[in-house]
């Protein structure tokens, strides 16, 4: 079985989002990193074949 290499990324979240991630993690006895990884994987799996982001063009 092949092992997938992992890399570290830093993500800055608005404080309310960070609190929500922490709450979900605590409620499920997992790390906040696990919650974020799952969210990213889910997002990417629902966007297969799509290159444009549905987030608009304005940046904060």
Explain how this protein is built.
The protein is mainly α and 60 residues long. Helix content is 48%, strand content 0%. The chain contains two helices and no strands. The radius of gyration is 14 Å and the shape is globular. The mean pLDDT is 88.
Shape: globular
The level of helicity is: 40-55%
SS class: mainly alpha
Low-confidence stretches: none
Q: How would you characterize the largest beta sheet?
A: none
Order of helices and strands: HH
| Fraction of residues in β-strands | under 5%
Give the distance, in angstroms, between the N- and C-terminal Cα atoms. 42 Å
- Number of helices, counting only DSSP H or I runs of 4 residues or more: 2
Number of strands: 0
Rg is 14 Å
Q: What integer is the average pLDDT?
A: 88
Quick description:
The protein has 60 residues and is an all-alpha fold. It has helices at 15-28, 32-46. The protein is 48% helix and 0% strand.
Topology:
Elements lengths: L14 H14 L3 H15 L14
Short descriptors:
60 residues; mainly alpha; 2 helices
